[in-house]
């Protein structure tokens, strides 16, 4: 009796599972895992019923060049490169080298930021008081959306108006940031009788909110507010940094509050402050 040969599509399913498990082991953020898995699915979908291990570096390079030819942004191409590198080096344990591969130029436009008044207009336009407070805290503390949904009661220091932000994802360390004293009463009400390990902004089922749900209610509030800017929840973080830069906060302090690993990442806000 002949041995059964696994179908290549079944092997691809196993490959997805192995890649996802490896990313979790490496403590990649949920957003990064989702993005990388999406890139890997798109790549493997084009292979058809083939064993991914048999794909050459030249074929990977051709796939990436195809993304560039179809007008994909630098960030999208970078994400695809990183996902394929992870597949080769972390899952296949093989070297990854693209040779003279040239990526599209980065968009050097400065990020759009919101004024304090615009943030207030968006926040008060949120139907749910919890959502309003989340918008205000994200701006006041300079939080990424992935950090906002992870805030627990124990992370708040009400006496000092400080917030501990755990390190989430690859290469991120925990940090201490600030929040406005004007939020203390609302934060105290939101804390209520919650235990220290409870999420400050739980979902309706008591678990962690998804970043997608934050994006959804922020978009609704933005539309109602009439603020005519293409803002996202991440714009609140940019706006926090730009506000501090305009008010004379030095670069090292700004870098620490934002949790940037490199000073260059925080320098852009000095340029925004000079522009505004």
Descriptive notes:
The structure is a single chain. Helix 5 packs across helix 9 (211-225). The protein has two domains: 8-91, Tyrosine recombinase, N-terminal domain (DNA polymerase, domain 1, Orthogonal Bundle); 116-275, Intergrase catalytic core (hpI Integrase, Chain A, Orthogonal Bundle), CATH 1.10.443.10. The chain has 276 residues and is mainly alpha-helical. It contains twelve helices and three strands, in the order αααααααβββααααα.
Name the strands of the widest sheet in spatial order: 1-2-3
Q: How does the major sheet shape up?
A: 3 strands, antiparallel
Low-confidence stretches: 1-9
Question: How many individual β-strands?
Answer: 3
List the total number of helices. Answer: 12
Task: Provide the structure class.
Answer: mainly alpha
- Report the average pLDDT across residues: 85
The CATH architecture of the largest domain can be named as: Orthogonal Bundle
**Corresponding CATH superfamily of the largest domain:** Intergrase catalytic core
Q: Rounded to an integer, what's the Rg over CA atoms?
A: 22 Å
Q: What is the CATH topology of the largest domain?
A: hpI Integrase, Chain A
Q: Topology as H/E string? A: HHHHHHHEEEHHHHH
Count of separate structural domains = 2
Helix percent band: 40-55%
| Estimated share of beta-strand residues | under 5%
In angstroms, what separates the terminal alpha carbons? 76 Å
């Amino acid at each position: 009796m002949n041995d059964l040969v696994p179908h290549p599509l079944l092997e691809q399913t196993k490959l997805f599972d192995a890649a996802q498990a490896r990313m979790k082991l490496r403590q990649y953020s949920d957003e990064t895992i989702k993005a990388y898995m999406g890139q890997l699915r798109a790549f493997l979908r084009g292979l058809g019923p083939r064993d991914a291990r048999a794909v050459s570096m030249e074929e990977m390079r051709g796939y990436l060049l195809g993304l560039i030819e179809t007008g994909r942004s630098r960030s999208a191409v970078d994400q695809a490169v990183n996902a394929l590198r992870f597949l080769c080096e972390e899952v296949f344990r093989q070297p990854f080298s693209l040779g003279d591969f040239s990526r599209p130029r980065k968009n050097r436009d400065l990020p759009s930021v919101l004024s304090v008044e615009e943030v207030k207009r968006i926040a008060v336009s949120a139907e749910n008081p919890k959502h309003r407070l989340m918008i205000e805290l994200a701006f006041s503390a300079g939080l990424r959306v992935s950090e906002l949904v992870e805030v627990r009661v124990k992370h708040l220091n009400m006496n000092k108006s400080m917030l501990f932000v755990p390190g989430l994802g690859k290469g991120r360390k925990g940090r201490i940031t600030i929040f406005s004293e004007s939020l203390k009463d609302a934060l105290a009400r939101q804390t209520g009788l919650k235990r220290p390990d409870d999420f400050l902004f739980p979902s309706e089922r008591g678990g962690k909110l998804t970043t997608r749900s934050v994006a959804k209610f922020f978009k609704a509030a933005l539309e109602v507010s009439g603020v005519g800017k293409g803002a996202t929840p991440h714009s609140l973080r940019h706006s926090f940094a730009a506000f501090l830069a305009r008010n004379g906060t030095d670069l090292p302090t700004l870098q620490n509050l934002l949790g940037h690993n490199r000073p260059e990442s925080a320098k852009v806000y000095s340029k925004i402050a000079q522009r505004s």
